[in-house]
């Protein structure tokens, strides 16, 4: 401290406590609602202290609308998106920083351009593509007149291939979210700070490109990978728009979508707030735990991915 | 071990030419040191030998085999980098054995070799440590260990000692020399530090602006610098230079500014030629001031303990005399200097070549 | 930028390394984006079988429709409200946490965690507090201040609810960046100002705030982008653009016109307008980034 200002310090603490209470208020209310029976929750005013119905409500929440299955789906999607994004972006960043080849800058700018095409602005055609990702292939075959020869030559049923759909599948949930300009740039930035001499030493030691990537670059990127994992896991877990469109069956959707559908399912009827809130807590717990447990990495990841 | 032959090697980056046809022959077992100021192309040359830079023109052969199109690992060389380039996430043992592991050497062989090399370098106690846990000198040894373990034909050193402090540099210098003798290897070292160069080299190669200026033993290069550049670059005290002209009979010199130097009867240079005369400060001795002789007024004195450097103002560029430590001088007094004819280095004023 | 020394003899490998990312981009980003561009200039019949090229008709329809102007207006209110409150709250938390000595890490944790909550669930949590019948805050407003609060019927109340929910989620992000910026200020500067006789408030206004202004500007851009594109879930779960279009922000309207209204041409034209908007925002962001790089040097 530069000077002693006990009064100012006290004011700071009071303001902070007030602010933190405001930030945590929704969580506290959710917790209270999740620990009472529905009639108790609907009392006016609602009880201000937790009850003892948490376990019952959690069980009911798990039983309703396939939540257990949906939590597993959420885990698969967020892990899939995280691993996929990191793998794709580290390979691309390696290619554009350590190789000289034609169209290197084109590739760089193509990846850059995706920053300007968030899924929200191209949602309808992206959905159409995901519904039939190979339709473009069929169109191409028709245009070039190759469909007939291909079918008779190989005996493949092109129509079946073209009609292949990603709706209600893990691939459909994960693949379209796997490209990442931000992560690619993060790794590119990191690689550019790695001393040139390390590659030279590795070359003299006889390392091939892939060995260099696996033995030197990957271990040296570890802290960034951990930081990025925290951010991407939360990103994947909390996806909304895309899973909402690509899944129709309750058993294939994510927990976030499942719960929000329960709320909007019966707008006139009184929502079962106690089990809803129990469900909300269950769904929020994994990403919050990740952020809280890996706070340092989370902050690093957040700051890194904006450079 | 091996020879390294460099024939008419050129290097350009686009239109910028950094090496203008270098010819060198490095013999088996030699410790060749390439010395030059920064930007003279010495590191580029070394990196071309290593295979880290494309060769624009000419040929490099290691042990008789042209290596222009070979990858670094196929050239049978090892390199020690200025900043050591140790893999930060690997232990000392892993750093040293990386090349062997890539080559799939048997585990037992790797262990024996690591232990052997660590013994030679005295780093056996830190094999499990990471590079960040080591001091500068220890890192330097690990970098050398990584090179030695491969038993290459040629060792390449790129300014290996310049990241160390003065005391450690001296110690590692002698160790490097001892190691070279023990391994009986061909070594090429690049440096801008002439003390390092003189003390390590069997053969000294002085480079400037993409060209080789002189090749010889350190003694030869010091005693008979081939060009003005070498004369100015070699020697811990900078050489004094005077512009002048050789007399018609070739037996005396008249310097710009009027002073004259006599050749003591012998021929000192081609008659009637514009020259630059170089004299090392320690070849000059203070003497009473004489009319028509070389001399000047004392401008300042640096007392270095073992020697006193006397800066004399001769009304032109000034020059320096290395006087014995017990010399007593009055402030701003006039002094003359004596010099023997054999200590004069004469260079052609136009080409800068030794006469 | 490329490494000086590189693997220039391994060109095929480079293409192989890039292939997965490029494939995903081509199929799920560029192809759909091209389709959106194409559809923005066409009109399809109701069965989606045939389409006619109509030049800028879709854009004209969009830009002359009162609903679209309402949407622009609502987006402006929503994003400025969300940005202003999230940035201010983030700054306040950062300044306070930076100042206190005791309990720093506890405060930090309690401010950071909402980042991990899904936007939809953030909406649900706040809806529960603000629910007209049994929401605790709604009740307090009614009984304490006589405010008849009902976000399900009143447009302004609905807007306020979505702003609160959206801003609440973004405070932690702003907090993290502001705190990092504050901690990067050299202590010697603050000490020099204190020796010059500046008190804590004066120091903040004349020294600290100017030094963190690049961060502030950066966060303003990021928050606007967030409010534009990442808040779909909140709107969709809480208000569905209602009541009466009061929270019908642009991103929600693209979705509603395309998926609920099934008017591809109209929806695509809006997509293209949004793309232009993102390009503009990205440009601003990168102009700023260049500046920030200069600050760092």
TrEMBL record, chain A:
Q: What is its main location?
A: membrane
Where on the tree of life does the source sit, at the highest rank? Answer: Bacteria
Ranges for domain ABC transmembrane type-1? 71-294
Q: Does the keyword Transport apply?
A: yes
Membrane topology summary = Multi-pass membrane protein
Which residue ranges run through the membrane?
7-31, 75-96, 108-130, 170-191, 280-299
SUPFAM superfamilies hit by this protein: MetI-like
Q: Under what name is this protein listed?
A: sn-glycerol-3-phosphate transport system permease protein UgpE
- Summary of the function given for this chain in its UniProt record: Part of the ABC transporter complex UgpBAEC involved in sn-glycerol-3-phosphate (G3P) import. Probably responsible for the translocation of the substrate across the membrane.
Which Pfam families does the record match to this protein? BPD_transp_1
Quote the subcellular location field of this record: Cell inner membrane; Cell membrane
Spell out the family assignment given in the record's similarity comment. Belongs to the binding-protein-dependent transport system permease family.
Q: Does the keyword Repressor apply?
A: no
PANTHER family per the UniProt record, alphabetical: ABC TRANSPORTER PERMEASE PROTEIN MG189-RELATED-RELATED (PTHR43744), SN-GLYCEROL-3-PHOSPHATE TRANSPORT SYSTEM PERMEASE PROTEIN UGPE (PTHR43744:SF8)
Q: Which UniProt keywords apply?
A: Cell inner membrane, Cell membrane, Membrane, Transmembrane, Transmembrane helix, Transport
TrEMBL record, chain B:
Give the UniProt keywords, A-Z: ATP-binding, Nucleotide-binding, Transport
InterPro entries given for it?
AAA+_ATPase, ABC_transporter-like_ATP-bd, ABC_transporter-like_CS, ABC_transpr_MalK-like, ABC_transpr_MalK/UgpC-like, Mo/tungstate-bd_C_term_dom, NA-bd_OB-fold, OB_MalK-like
The yes or no answer to whether the keyword Nucleotide-binding is present is: yes
Pfam families membership: ABC_tran, OB_MalK
Specify the domain of life of the species encoding this protein: Bacteria
Domain called ABC transporter: residue spans: 4-234
Citing just one GO molecular function, the answer is: ATP binding
Signal peptide (UniProt feature, chain positions): none
Family note: Belongs to the ABC transporter superfamily.
Q: What is this protein called?
A: Sn-glycerol-3-phosphate ABC transporter ATP-binding protein UgpC
Q: Which organism is it from?
A: Reyranella aquatilis
Whichever gene encodes this chain, its name is: ugpC
């Amino acid at each position: 401290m530069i000077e002693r200002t006990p009064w100012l310090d006290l004011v700071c603490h009071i303001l902070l406590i007030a602010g933190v209470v405001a930030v945590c208020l929704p969580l506290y209310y959710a917790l209270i609602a999740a620990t009472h029976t529905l009639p108790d929750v609907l009392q006016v005013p609602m009880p201000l202290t937790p009850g003892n119905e948490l376990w019952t409500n959690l069980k009911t929440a798990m039983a309703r609308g396939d939540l257990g299955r949906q939590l597993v789906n959420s885990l698969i999607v967020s892990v899939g998106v995280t691993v996929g994004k990191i793998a794709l972006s580290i390979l691309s960043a390696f290619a554009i920083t350590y190789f000289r080849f034609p169209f290197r800058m084109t590739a760089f700018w193509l990846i850059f351009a995706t920053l300007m095409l968030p899924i929200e602005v191209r949602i309808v055609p992206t959905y159409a593509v995901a519904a039939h990702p190979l339709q473009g292939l069929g169109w191409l075959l028709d245009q070039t007149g190759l469909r007939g020869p291909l079918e008779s030559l190989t005996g493949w049923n092109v129509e079946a291939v073209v009609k292949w759909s990603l709706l209600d599948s893990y691939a459909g949930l994960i693949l379209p979210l796997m490209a990442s300009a931000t992560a690619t740039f993060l790794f590119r930035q990191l690689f550019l700070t790695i001393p040139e001499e390390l590659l030279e030493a590795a070359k003299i030691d006889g390392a091939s490109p892939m060995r260099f990537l696996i033995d030197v670059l990957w271990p040296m990127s570890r802290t960034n990978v951990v930081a990025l994992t925290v951010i991407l896991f939360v990103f994947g877990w909390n996806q909304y728009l895309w899973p909402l469109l690509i899944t129709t069956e309750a058993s294939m959707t994510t927990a976030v979508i499942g719960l929000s559908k329960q709320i909007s399912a019966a707008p006139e009827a009184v929502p079962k707030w106690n089990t809803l809130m129990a469900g909300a807590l269950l769904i929020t717990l994994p990403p919050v735990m990740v952020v809280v447990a890996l706070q340092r990495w989370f902050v690093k990841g957040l700051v890194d991915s904006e450079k | 071990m091996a020879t390294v032959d460099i024939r008419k090697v050129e290097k350009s980056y686009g239109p910028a030419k950094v090496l203008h046809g270098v010819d060198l022959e490095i013999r088996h077992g030699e410790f060749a040191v390439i010395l030059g100021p920064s930007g003279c192309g010495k590191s580029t040359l070394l990196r071309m030998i290593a295979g880290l830079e494309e060769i624009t023109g000419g040929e490099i052969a290691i042990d008789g085999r042209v290596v222009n199109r070979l990858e670094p690992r196929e050239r049978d060389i090892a390199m020690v980098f200025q900043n050591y380039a140790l893999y930060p996430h690997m232990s000392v043992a892993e750093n040293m054995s990386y090349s062997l592991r890539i080559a799939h050497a048997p585990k037992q062989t790797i262990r024996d070799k690591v232990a052997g090399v660590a013994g030679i370098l005295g780093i056996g106690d830190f094999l499990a440590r990471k590079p960040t846990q080591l001091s500068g000198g220890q890192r330097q040894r690990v970098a050398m260990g990584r090179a030695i373990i491969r038993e290459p034909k040629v060792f390449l050193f790129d300014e290996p000692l310049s990241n160390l402090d003065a005391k450690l540099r001296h110690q590692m210098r002698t160790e490097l020399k001892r190691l070279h003798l023990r391994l009986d290897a061909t070594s090429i070292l690049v440096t801008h530090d002439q003390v390092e160069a003189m003390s390590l080299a069997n053969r000294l190669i002085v480079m400037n602006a993409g060209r080789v200026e002189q090749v010889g033993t350190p003694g030869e290069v010091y005693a008979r610098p081939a060009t003005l550049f070498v004369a100015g670059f070699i020697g811990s005290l900078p050489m004094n230079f005077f512009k002048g002209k050789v007399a018609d009979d070739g037996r005396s010199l008249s310097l710009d500014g009027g002073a004259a130097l006599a050749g003591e009867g012998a021929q000192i240079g081609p008659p009637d030629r514009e020259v630059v005369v170089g004299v090392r400060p320690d070849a000059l001795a203070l003497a009473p001031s004489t009319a028509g002789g070389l001399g000047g007024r004392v401008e300042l004195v640096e007392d270095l303990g073992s020697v006193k450097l006397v800066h004399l103002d001769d009304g032109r560029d000034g020059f320096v005399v290395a006087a014995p430590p017990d010399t007593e001088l009055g402030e701003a007094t006039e002094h003359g200097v004596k010099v023997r004819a054999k200590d004069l280095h004469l260079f052609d004023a136009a080409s800068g070549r030794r006469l | 930028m490329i490494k000086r020394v590189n693997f220039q003899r391994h060109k095929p490998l480079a293409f192989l390394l890039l292939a997965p990312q490029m494939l995903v981009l081509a199929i799920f980003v560029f192809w759909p984006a091209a389709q959106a561009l194409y559809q923005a200039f066409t009109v399809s019949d109701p069965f989606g079988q045939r389409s006619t090229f109509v030049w800028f008709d879709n854009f004209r329809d969009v830009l002359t429709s009162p609903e679209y102007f309402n949407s622009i207006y609502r987006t402006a209110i929503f994003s400025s409200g969300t940005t202003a409150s999230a940035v201010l709250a983030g700054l306040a938390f950062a300044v306070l946490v930076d100042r206190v000595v005791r309990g720093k890490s506890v405060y930090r944790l309690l401010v950071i965690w909402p980042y991990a909550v899904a936007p939809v669930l953030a909406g649900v949590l706040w809806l529960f507090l603000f629910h007209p019948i049994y929401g605790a805050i709604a009740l307090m407003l009614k009984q304490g201040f006589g405010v008849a609060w009902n976000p399900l019927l009143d447009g302004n109340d609905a807007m306020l609810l979505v702003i609160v929910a959206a801003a609440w989620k973004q405070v932690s992000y702003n907090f993290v960046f502001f705190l990092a910026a504050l901690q990067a200020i050299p202590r010697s500067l603050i000490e020099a100002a204190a020796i010059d006789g500046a008190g804590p408030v004066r120091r903040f206004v004349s020294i600290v705030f100017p030094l963190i202004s690049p961060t502030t500007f950066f966060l303003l851009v990021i928050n606007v982008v967030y409010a534009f594109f990442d808040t779909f879930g909140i709107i969709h779960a809480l208000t569905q653009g209602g009541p009466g279009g009061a929270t019908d922000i642009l991103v929600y309207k693209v979705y509603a016109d395309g998926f609920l209204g099934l008017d591809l041409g109209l929806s695509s034209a809006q997509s293209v307008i949004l793309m232009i908007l993102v390009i503009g925002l990205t440009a601003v962001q990168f102009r700023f980034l260049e500046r920030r790089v200069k600050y760092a040097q």
